């Protein structure tokens, strides 16, 4: 594959990564630690919201992020013709 | 049947299973020994990674820590799961494409330097031995508590089992036993949690039970009730934290980056066939891990509530059998400060120093007397955090087979992690030290033999650590994560994402991160433990979280050195281009 194509593939990968890492940072460091007291004034069933993020929610988001990355990257691999098939 | 007989039965059955798998999956080449031939399915690798990752600390200790620390326990929950996002996005797919056997392999080739490889080997061996010592101790404790054999005998039995499948099967044997061990450990963790969740909230899923109302018909949410109980007794409310925000941030970040940089986790992603498998496999691994990690805070809250309800206000003479059993093993202690024969469980430490020192005599209620002086608090009770997971099924009066199951699960968690670590040590010695550095002329057969010998020696040393534990096992765990975060994570990341990154920068960066982190932890843990408090920490960062600062130092030094030294050779830049695309 051409160098140009590979470069475009890499840029697309980096953009996707950046978006997902921003979410990763927000659900854990922001919602779970920095704004935890602020969020604790809201409720999610029996949970205070900040507590939920830090002990449950962040983990669910982490799982989701990896699956979204894997799914989007498989599509990018195909689009740029760099998949392993 | 008695709990003890059932425990023998369950542990015996699970061990037979592991040995059977080991015989079925022997390794015949170095590729099979190091990376299971590179054809493990992504789901199987996910389960194996989960078992590899979740150690005695995750299984036995974590829920106990959360039970007593409440909201602060979140640093472990997020730190030990969030690292998988970094691993899946930033490292695993590219290291899989690179397609070698070990982490020092990548460091040595990418930085075209034997020095870099050797620094990496030293880090791998140090990090892995630190970790494995704790696992062997965990094996010994489970054996001694549930099977009433001597701790040392327990360690030796554990060594024998690991020897069998690690030396015979290498990575191939370890992978398939880890899949079985994952099944055992997750079943053992979930069953008691589900039982207790139903008993307290009526909800069979513990992660939702934690957010449900109490089953007693009061309509009060469980967490609100627990907050009420804890504050009433003069303890910190369960859902509020004590640690400073900056310390929580740094510890969580160190655990995340450390997770992504731990060699025994990374190497698991060398075992799948393709790059796309490496990405999805990290996802499966995290699903399997999340099952335990979202349950742990529920177990913690349930246990805290059950302990308060069952223990506070009970007369010592009517104490249930688990209470005196754990008191006999020295993990529970009670001092009757007001001489009423009733246990008062309140906020603050009961004793000074906080760990009990038994005198060997019995008090008027029959309790074991203590040599400690009393603290100012009204609290009369000491409970070791490590017993929560093991004791909770008994506290909640679950059937004997559930209690037996927990013992088998704890052993599965400790043994699977120990095996993964030992393999990383043996491949660092036979592959990176011998084949790639000192004895490149050895044949593959000889290398395989050396790998087996190295694994056997490593098991022996790990066993010695289990039998003669260095007094600082608990302290040095902070080392493993801090050092992985400060050394490997930046070097791997920059190696993939920064083409200009060269060997001078990598070596100075790794050494800076290592030395800084090592010095900070060593100072507060060993040189001057009296100063180990927020007043003396830099920026309020505890030794647990200093790996993050070490990592930042590594990044900064690397990028500066890189500016003033020549770029890497053209073929290395081509290698970086190559690992960035899957095909």
What do you see in this structure?
The complex is a heterodimer of chains A (85) and B (583). In chain A, helix 1 runs antiparallel to helix 3. The mean pLDDT of chain A is 92. A two-stranded antiparallel sheet of chain A has the order 1-2. By secondary structure, chain A is mostly helical. In chain A, a hairpin with a 2-residue loop joins strand 1 and strand 2. Chain A has one domain (3-79). Chain A is built from three helices and two strands, in the order H-H-E-E-H. Helices cover 69% and strands 3% of the residues of chain B. The radius of gyration of chain B is 24 Å and the shape is globular. In chain B, helix 13 (275-311) packs across helix 15 (388-395). In chain B, strand 3 and strand 4 (368-370) form a beta hairpin. Chain B has two domains: 3-306 and 395-580, Sodium/glucose cotransporter (Up-down Bundle); 332-383, no CATH class. Chain B has a two-stranded antiparallel sheet with strand order 1-6. Chain B has a two-stranded antiparallel sheet with strand order 2-5. Chain B is mostly helical and 583 residues long. Chain B contains 22 helices and six strands. At the A-B interface, helix 1, strand 2 and helix 3 of A face helix 5, helix 10, helix 11 and helix 13 of B.
């Amino acid at each position: 594959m051409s160098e140009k194509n590979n470069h475009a593939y890499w840029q697309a990968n980096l953009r996707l990564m950046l978006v997902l890492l921003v979410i990763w940072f927000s659900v854990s460091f922001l919602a779970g630690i920095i704004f935890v007291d602020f969020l604790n004034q809201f409720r999610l069933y029996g949970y205070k919201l900040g507590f939920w993020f830090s002990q449950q929610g962040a983990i669910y988001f982490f799982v989701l992020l990896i699956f979204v990355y894997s799914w989007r990257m498989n599509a990018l691999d195909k689009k740029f013709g760099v998949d392993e098939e | 049947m008695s709990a003890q007989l059932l425990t023998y039965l369950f542990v015996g059955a699970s061990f037979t299973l592991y040995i059977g798998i080991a015989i079925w999956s022997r390794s015949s080449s170095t590729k099979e020994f190091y990376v299971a031939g590179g054809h493990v399915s992504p789901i199987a690798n996910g389960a194996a990674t989960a078992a590899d990752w979740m150690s005695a600390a995750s299984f036995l200790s974590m829920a106990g820590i959360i039970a007593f620390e409440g909201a602060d326990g979140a640093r472990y929950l997020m730190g030990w799961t969030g690292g998988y996002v970094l691993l899946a996005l930033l490292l695993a797919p590219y290291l899989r494409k690179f397609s070698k056997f070990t982490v020092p392999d990548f460091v040595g080739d990418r930085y075209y330097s034997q020095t870099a490889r050797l620094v990496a080997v030293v880090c791998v061996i140090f990090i892995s031995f630190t970790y494995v010592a704790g696992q062997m101790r965990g094996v010994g404790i489970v054996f001694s508590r549930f099977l009433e054999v001597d701790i040392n005998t327990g360690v030796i039995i554990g060594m024998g089992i690991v020897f069998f499948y690690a030396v015979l099967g290498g990575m191939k044997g370890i992978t398939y036993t880890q899949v079985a061990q994952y099944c055992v450990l997750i079943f053992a963790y979930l069953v008691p949690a589900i039982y207790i969740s139903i008993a307290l909230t009526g909800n069979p899923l513990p992660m939702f039970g934690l957010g449900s109302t109490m089953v007693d018909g009061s309509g009060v949410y469980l967490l609100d009730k627990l907050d009420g109980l804890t504050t009433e007794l003069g303890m910190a409310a369960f859902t509020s934290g004590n640690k400073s925000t900056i310390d929580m941030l740094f510890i969580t970040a160190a655990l995340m980056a450390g997770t992504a940089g731990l060699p025994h986790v990374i190497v698991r992603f060398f075992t799948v066939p393709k790059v796309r498998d490496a990405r999805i496999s990290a996802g499966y691994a995290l699903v399997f891990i999340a099952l335990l990690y979202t349950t742990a805070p529920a177990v913690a809250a349930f246990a805290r509530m059950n302990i308060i309800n069952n223990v506070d206000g009970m007369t010592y003479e009517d104490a249930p059998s688990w209470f005196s059993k754990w008191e006999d093993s020295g993990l529970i202690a009670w001092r009757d400060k007001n001489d009423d024969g009733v246990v008062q469980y309140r906020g603050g430490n009961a004793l000074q120093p906080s760990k009990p020192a038994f005198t060997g005599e019995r008090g008027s209620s029959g309790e074991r007397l203590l040599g400690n002086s009393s603290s100012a608090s009204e609290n009369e009770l000491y409970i070791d955090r490590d017993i929560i997971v093991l004791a909770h099924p008994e506290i909640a009066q679950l059937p004997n087979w559930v209690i037996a199951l927990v013992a088998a699960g704890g052993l599965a968690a400790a043994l699977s992690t120990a095996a993964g670590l030992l393999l990383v040590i043996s491949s660092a010695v036979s592959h990176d030290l011998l084949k790639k550095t000192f004895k490149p002329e050895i044949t593959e057969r000889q290398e395989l033999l050396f790998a087996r010998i190295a694994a056997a020696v490593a098991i022996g040393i790990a066993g010695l650590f289990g039998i003669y534990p260095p007094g600082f096992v608990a302290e040095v765990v902070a080392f493993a994560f801090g050092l992985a975060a400060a050394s490997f994570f930046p070097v791997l990341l920059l190696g993939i994402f920064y083409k200009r990154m060269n060997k001078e920068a990598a070596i100075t960066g790794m050494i800076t991160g290592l030395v800084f982190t090592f010095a900070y932890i060593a100072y507060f843990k060993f040189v001057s433990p009296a100063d180990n408090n927020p007043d003396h920490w830099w920026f309020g960062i505890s030794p647990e979280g200093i790996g993050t600062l070490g990592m930042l130092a590594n990044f900064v030094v690397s990028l500066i050195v890189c500016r003033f030294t020549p770029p890497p050779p053209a073929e290395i830049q081509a290698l970086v281009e190559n690992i960035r695309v899957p095909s």
